[in-house]
Amino acid sequence: MSISARDVVPFTQARSNLSELADQVKAGAEKIITKNGESYEALIDADRLDDYHRLERERIHLLLIDDARRGLEDIVAGHTQDADQALATIQKRRSPAQSATKPVKSRG
């Protein structure tokens, strides 16, 4: 759905016409509420919000499946490392960086 100029509403106008805006949204419109000339909030139908949340959950699941697929491909290709060895490597990389950023204590 595209947003037109009449779907962009200043905050003060939205506050005074909330009932009318709610009816328009229930009829299928989406409203962008602005504050100080910049987008601030969106007013959408609750059912549509549920759909957006469902789509976002599905997107997250697809990303997780893709990560798992890539991980399995790494295993098949032999690109694996023992977990303890990997953690030790990470800790070794962090040690010089952490010691370089530690503050020097004054003695006096």
Automatic annotation (TrEMBL):
InterPro entries: Antitoxin_Phd/YefM (IPR006442), YefM-like_sf (IPR036165). SUPFAM superfamilies: YefM-like. Pfam families: PhdYeFM_antitox. Gene3D superfamilies: YefM-like domain. It comes from the Bacteria. Belongs to the phD/YefM antitoxin family. Antitoxin component of a type II toxin-antitoxin (TA) system. This is Antitoxin. It comes from Comamonas odontotermitis.
